[in-house]
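[stage:ingest] chain + small molecule (pantoate)
[stage:ingest] validated
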Amino acid sequence: MEIISEIAGMRRRIAALPRPIGFVPTMGALHAGHLALASAARSACASVVVSLFVNPLQFAPHEDLARYPRDLAGDCAKLEVVGTTLLFAPDAAQMYPPGFMTSVEVGAMGGRYEGVARPTHFRGVATVVAKLLAIVTPDRLYLGQKDAQQTAILRRMVTDLGFATQVEIVPTVREADGVAMSSRNVYLSAEERREAVSLHRALVTLRDRLQEGASKAEAIEEASAKLGSLARLEYLDVVDAQSFDALDALRPPAFVIGAARFGQTRLLDNLWIQK
Ligand code: PAF
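[stage:predict] done
[stage:export] tokens:
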């Protein structure tokens, strides 16, 4: 696997890569969820490009940018195993040169749910992904269902800004007990980790009760009761899969979504109801 850290070098190399190119943007600290994205790209594309960049623009000043887990050597070894062709690992000066002032504004979809807790987050995500798409020019962009709101916003951005890439969503990979894989799971204490599964259980209850015809208010109340005593709920809801507008009942394609804090760690999860 080749590693390139400069945009000019990427442009030269991308021009020579066999197409289709599948692209997986990451912030590193790779787990089985990221590797499922790279494997999906490997099985459908001639070349697999992964980016590793802990993007300062999507972290608010009080968030975990400085302590975000980093393991370049471990990440490279994992990416080799799944057949990655090229890793783009720029530094912040490459991505945001002095005087950088252009960003991608996302609409109302970026202001709800995750956008309430993290008001500048999706602008940072959309800006870096737009720049990465301009550099990598992939035929297919692979994103994880785990960050469902991010995938909906990026799908919209690809359409709105006319990027010539197809967006592929890869299902969430879970630990044996059902907890969604996340780079932030390493922050959980043993007790918080034991309780983290209650977020998944709440989402299963919410989906099942809505499918059984319960009202949304009843279903949310029953689902909330599944959360462990350490959980501080931020939201549970059912939303349209494309627009992320709240639904009053389960009308697929939809996501049931939730976020809760366990100690200092904010976890989010969702279930995708496609039909
Ligand atoms: O999901 C992530 O890891 C990040 O938000 C992404 C898409 C790599 C952009 O920095």
